[in-house]
Each structure stands twice: as structure tokens, then as C-alpha cells.
Specification:
About 60% of the residues lie in helices and about 10% in strands. The longest helix is centred in the C-terminal third of the chain and has 21 residues.
């Protein structure tokens, strides 16, 4: 399925019409449409995907806790990696790697 050129997509046409007729013009209807269109993207930016907590590890007595987080991978990024043949780690695999790293750091500190 071929995509429409960017300038002919309905979302782009709505934004353009709302900008010129509503915000820069005097049409109340298009101002309302503009608030909906631009407000939706702003709300999604602030309240959309949030990082997932992978592991919280106590590193020992009198030591701070380490919190490791990672951003959720987008669908586009997963498809690109799959197309390249790269495998992404699951949450449990990332957690295991975090625990191994913390144990290795703890052993290194005890040895020194």
C-alpha cells in the first residue's frame, strides 16, 4: 500500500487549516480543531510511553541503591532490528544481565 505524500495526508491538512484559519485567522471552529489536533500530540508527548523499571538492586551496607531503567522500544525500532536480523532482549533477560552486573561490581569491590 503506497503512502500519500506528506503534504496530502489528512492530519497535515487539518493542522495547516487549523493554523491558518484558526490561530492566525478568526474562525472559532478551526481554533477548536487546532486545540484538539495539537493538544493530542502534546498530551501524548507528556503522558505517553514511560520508561520501565528493570531492576532495583541494593549494592550492600552503607551503599546506595541502583535503579536501572530503559525506554520501551518503539514498534518501528523493533521492526528495523528484526529486519537486520538482530534480536532484542526481553525484560527478564535485561533483569538477569542487571543482576549479573551488580554481582560482578560487588565482587570487584570486595576484592579490592
Amino acid at each position: 500500500m503506497a503512502l500519500l505524500p506528506r503534504m496530502l495526508r489528512p492530519s497535515v491538512l487539518l493542522r495547516r487549516k487549523a493554523m491558518y484559519s484558526g490561530f492566525l485567522g478568526n474562525s472559532g471552529f478551526w481554533k477548536f480543531v487546532g486545540l484538539l489536533v495539537f493538544g493530542k500530540s502534546i498530551l501524548r508527548k507528556f503522558f505517553g510511553k514511560t520508561p520501565e523499571v528493570i531492576e532495583v538492586t541494593a549494592l550492600g551496607p552503607e551503599r546506595y541503591m541502583q535503579v536501572t531503567t530503559a525506554k520501551p522500544m518503539t514498534r518501528r525500532r523493533r521492526r528495523k532490528l528484526a529486519k537486520r536480523g538482530d534480536r532484542t532482549l526481553t525484560l527478564s533477560e535485561r533483569k538477569a544481565l542487571g543482576q549479573l552486573w551488580a554481582a560482578e561490581q560487588d565482587d570487584a569491590r570486595r576484592a579490592s
